[in-house]
Write a structure and sequence with these properties.
Number of helices: 8
Strand content: under 5%
Shape: globular
Helix content: over 70%
Oligomer: single chain
Length: 131
Protein backbone atom coordinates (compact mmCIF):
# COMPACT_ATOMS: atom_id res chain seq x y z
CA UNK A 1 0.00 0.00 0.00
CA UNK A 2 2.82 2.37 0.87
CA UNK A 3 4.54 1.59 -2.45
CA UNK A 4 1.34 2.37 -4.32
CA UNK A 5 1.03 5.68 -2.49
CA UNK A 6 4.62 6.63 -3.27
CA UNK A 7 4.20 5.77 -6.94
CA UNK A 8 0.98 7.78 -7.17
CA UNK A 9 2.61 10.72 -5.40
CA UNK A 10 5.57 10.63 -7.78
CA UNK A 11 3.24 10.49 -10.77
CA UNK A 12 1.28 13.46 -9.45
CA UNK A 13 4.44 15.49 -8.92
CA UNK A 14 5.56 14.76 -12.46
CA UNK A 15 2.18 15.46 -14.04
CA UNK A 16 3.11 18.94 -15.22
CA UNK A 17 6.51 18.05 -16.70
CA UNK A 18 6.88 18.04 -20.48
CA UNK A 19 10.29 16.45 -21.15
CA UNK A 20 10.50 13.13 -23.01
CA UNK A 21 12.02 11.16 -20.09
CA UNK A 22 9.34 12.46 -17.73
CA UNK A 23 6.59 11.60 -20.23
CA UNK A 24 8.04 8.09 -20.54
CA UNK A 25 8.02 7.75 -16.75
CA UNK A 26 4.42 9.00 -16.61
CA UNK A 27 3.43 6.35 -19.19
CA UNK A 28 5.18 3.67 -17.12
CA UNK A 29 3.22 4.71 -14.02
CA UNK A 30 0.02 4.69 -16.03
CA UNK A 31 0.78 1.23 -17.41
CA UNK A 32 1.53 -0.10 -13.92
CA UNK A 33 -1.82 0.98 -12.57
CA UNK A 34 -3.97 0.38 -15.65
CA UNK A 35 -6.24 -2.50 -14.86
CA UNK A 36 -5.60 -2.47 -11.12
CA UNK A 37 -7.69 0.44 -9.94
CA UNK A 38 -11.04 -1.24 -10.46
CA UNK A 39 -10.17 -4.72 -9.22
CA UNK A 40 -11.77 -4.31 -5.79
CA UNK A 41 -15.03 -3.10 -7.30
CA UNK A 42 -14.89 -5.88 -9.90
CA UNK A 43 -14.48 -8.56 -7.23
CA UNK A 44 -17.27 -7.02 -5.14
CA UNK A 45 -19.50 -6.86 -8.24
CA UNK A 46 -18.97 -10.53 -9.02
CA UNK A 47 -19.74 -11.44 -5.41
CA UNK A 48 -22.90 -9.32 -5.46
CA UNK A 49 -23.92 -10.99 -8.72
CA UNK A 50 -23.39 -14.44 -7.20
CA UNK A 51 -25.58 -13.34 -4.26
CA UNK A 52 -28.32 -12.21 -6.69
CA UNK A 53 -27.91 -8.57 -5.66
CA UNK A 54 -28.03 -7.42 -9.28
CA UNK A 55 -28.58 -3.71 -8.72
CA UNK A 56 -25.52 -3.46 -6.46
CA UNK A 57 -23.54 -5.73 -8.77
CA UNK A 58 -24.28 -3.52 -11.77
CA UNK A 59 -23.18 -0.43 -9.85
CA UNK A 60 -19.95 -2.08 -8.70
CA UNK A 61 -19.12 -3.55 -12.10
CA UNK A 62 -19.66 -0.21 -13.84
CA UNK A 63 -17.51 1.49 -11.25
CA UNK A 64 -14.80 -1.10 -11.87
CA UNK A 65 -14.93 -0.43 -15.60
CA UNK A 66 -14.77 3.32 -14.99
CA UNK A 67 -11.73 2.93 -12.72
CA UNK A 68 -9.90 0.58 -15.09
CA UNK A 69 -9.61 -3.17 -15.46
CA UNK A 70 -7.34 -5.50 -17.35
CA UNK A 71 -8.78 -6.84 -20.60
CA UNK A 72 -9.96 -10.15 -19.17
CA UNK A 73 -11.87 -8.51 -16.33
CA UNK A 74 -13.29 -5.87 -18.70
CA UNK A 75 -14.76 -8.69 -20.77
CA UNK A 76 -16.18 -10.41 -17.71
CA UNK A 77 -17.59 -7.19 -16.26
CA UNK A 78 -19.45 -6.56 -19.52
CA UNK A 79 -20.61 -10.19 -19.56
CA UNK A 80 -22.10 -9.89 -16.07
CA UNK A 81 -23.68 -6.55 -16.97
CA UNK A 82 -25.20 -8.22 -20.04
CA UNK A 83 -26.59 -11.03 -17.89
CA UNK A 84 -28.08 -8.52 -15.45
CA UNK A 85 -29.70 -6.55 -18.26
CA UNK A 86 -31.08 -9.69 -19.89
CA UNK A 87 -32.70 -10.99 -16.71
CA UNK A 88 -34.01 -7.49 -15.96
CA UNK A 89 -35.88 -7.33 -19.24
CA UNK A 90 -33.54 -4.86 -20.96
CA UNK A 91 -32.58 -6.64 -24.20
CA UNK A 92 -31.05 -3.58 -25.88
CA UNK A 93 -28.69 -2.95 -22.97
CA UNK A 94 -27.96 -6.69 -22.83
CA UNK A 95 -26.88 -6.63 -26.49
CA UNK A 96 -24.82 -3.50 -25.93
CA UNK A 97 -22.90 -5.10 -23.07
CA UNK A 98 -22.20 -8.22 -25.12
CA UNK A 99 -20.95 -5.96 -27.93
CA UNK A 100 -18.61 -4.23 -25.50
CA UNK A 101 -17.32 -7.59 -24.27
CA UNK A 102 -16.65 -8.65 -27.85
CA UNK A 103 -15.03 -5.29 -28.63
CA UNK A 104 -12.58 -5.95 -25.80
CA UNK A 105 -12.01 -9.55 -26.94
CA UNK A 106 -13.39 -10.64 -30.32
CA UNK A 107 -12.64 -14.28 -29.44
CA UNK A 108 -14.74 -14.18 -26.27
CA UNK A 109 -17.22 -17.02 -25.90
CA UNK A 110 -19.63 -17.95 -23.16
CA UNK A 111 -19.07 -21.09 -21.14
CA UNK A 112 -21.35 -23.96 -22.27
CA UNK A 113 -23.69 -23.56 -19.28
CA UNK A 114 -23.90 -19.80 -19.91
CA UNK A 115 -24.44 -20.22 -23.65
CA UNK A 116 -27.40 -22.50 -22.97
CA UNK A 117 -29.24 -19.97 -20.83
CA UNK A 118 -32.66 -19.21 -22.38
CA UNK A 119 -32.45 -15.44 -21.84
CA UNK A 120 -28.92 -14.41 -22.68
CA UNK A 121 -27.69 -17.40 -24.72
CA UNK A 122 -29.62 -16.46 -27.87
CA UNK A 123 -28.78 -12.77 -27.44
CA UNK A 124 -25.07 -13.49 -27.25
CA UNK A 125 -25.25 -15.87 -30.22
CA UNK A 126 -27.01 -13.18 -32.26
CA UNK A 127 -24.49 -10.47 -31.32
CA UNK A 128 -21.52 -12.75 -32.00
CA UNK A 129 -22.92 -13.81 -35.40
CA UNK A 130 -23.20 -10.19 -36.54
CA UNK A 131 -19.50 -9.51 -35.97
Amino acid sequence: MRRTFLLLAAAALLAGCESAPIKAMQQTFSDLFQGQMGEADFNAGVKSYENANYKESARQLQSALDLGLNKSNQVHAHKYLAFINCVSGRPTQCRNEFRKALDADPDFVLQPAEAGHPLWGPVFTSVKARR
